[in-house]
Every structure is written in structure tokens, then in C-alpha cells.
Amino acid sequence: MRPDTTARGGGLDLLRDERLRALLDRPAIFNLSQLAISGGQRATKRWAQAWLDARDGDHILDVCCGTGEFAALFPPRVTPYSEGVGGYLGVDLNERYIDYARERYGEVAGRAFAAVDATQLRLAPDSFDRALFINSMHHFPDELNRGILREVARVLRPGGRLIVIDMVGDDRRAAQRFFLDRDRGEQLRPLAAQLALLGESFAIERHDTFDSGFTPQTIVAARVVSRES
């Protein structure tokens, strides 16, 4: 069934128009939409950087990295560790986004991007210290999220930290609800449901909510459960 693109009171609801939403696969247009709706994710970036608490020498995995804009949060002080893969590695299935990320952020030693399936990373176990999974969970059904989270847990070292940021799926404030209902992701969840998914593969450390422009966000810090547990 095609979604209803008629706005209340008549007329076309442009944010629900399939042809216009398809344009978000173009990296520059996607970034422009983020600037308009969430202020360029400035608040999201501040929270992600503070909660990740990356240390010198940490290897950072950015899962479903999109256009790579979070790469710039982490100075290239981390060191390459094998086969030219940088201390920061951003992965995404969208090759357009990865090409854009490489062109804009990739010309830095210790930083790399790859177009890969996040459920099959083909990376060595215990090879990263920190991981990000930002504004992606609401695009995937539960089972796909489980596959991604299991794979992230596999490649993080024991005690490694994952920061997950997503939408507050049950936010009822009018302005926030307007944009939530028009997001391309069709799997919006309340924080409790996000915690339940994460808790299957990780130990939850803390969680909170905040606003980034008109986007209500959840943030969760979690650690890899001991392999022996």
C-alpha cells in the first residue's frame, strides 16, 4: 500500500512524497535535510563524542555511518592497526554515502570507510575499542538490529563501549511528532524497546534523552558482556 501523502486540510505533504524522499539517497540532499530538521545534528554529535569518551589509540567503528559526518569528531591521533584500515572505520551499505564520506573525510591517515553489510563485517574479533550506531535502529526490524548488534559485539574488545543514538519513538510533542511521522524509518521504538534489543548482546551502562533540533533522541551507552558470561 502506498503511503498517504495528503496533508491535513488538503494538498500534498511533501515530506511523505516517495519521489522527494528518494532524493535523500543523495548525500548532499540528505545532509541538507539534517541541517534543516536537526540543526546539522550538532547536539547529537556533542552527546556522541562525550559519551563515547574515546582515548588516544582507540580503534573506533562507526556502524551505518551514512555520509561520514561523525568521523570528524575524532582527530586522526588513532593509529592504523592492519592492512591500511584506519583507527576510525565507518561502514554503510549505501555506496553513494560511502563515496561521499571518502571524498570529504577520508583523506586523513588513520581514517577509512567501507561499503559493507553491518551484519557481516568480515573484521577480526576483538579489533575495536569503541563503536557508534547512530540514528539507524529505526530503519531496521528487530531481527536485523539483532544481527548488527551481535556483529558489533563480536568485533569489540571485552569491555569495549557502544554508543547508540536513535529517535524517541513515542515522543508526543506536536513539532517532534510531525517530523517523526515523516521519517523514512518505519521502525520507531520507545527507549524501553531499544534497551531490550541492546540488552540481548550488551550490558547497559546508562541512558538518557535529548533534543537535536526538532529530533527527539535517545542515547544509550553499553559495554560488551564478558565472553565467559
Q: What's the helix count?
A: 7
* Structural domain tally: 1
Distance from N terminus to C terminus (CA atoms, Å) equals: 45 Å
Beta content comes to: 15-25%
At the fourth level of CATH, the homologous superfamily is Vaccinia Virus protein VP39
**Inertia-based shape:** globular
Question: Which descriptors would you attach to this protein?
Answer:
Rossmann fold, globular, disordered N terminus, 30% helix, 229 residues, alpha/beta
Can you lay out the helices and strands and say which pair or pack?
Blueprint: H1 18-22, H2 27-38, H3 42-52, E1 60-63, E2 88-92, H4 95-105, E3 111-115, E4 128-134, H5 142-155, E5 156-167, H6 174-180, H7 191-199, E6 202-212, E7 215-224
Parallel strand pairs: 1-2, 1-4, 2-3, 4-5
Antiparallel strand pairs: 5-7, 6-7
Report what the structure shows:
By secondary structure, the protein is an alpha/beta fold. The protein has a single domain (14-224), classed as Vaccinia Virus protein VP39 (Rossmann fold), CATH 3.40.50.150. Helices cover 30% and strands 24% of the residues. It has seven helices and seven strands; from the N terminus they run αααββαββαβααββ. It has a seven-stranded mixed β-sheet with strand order 3-2-1-4-5-7-6, with helices on both faces. The longest helix is centred in the middle third of the chain and has 14 residues, at 142-155. Residues 1-12 and 80-86 have low confidence and may be disordered.
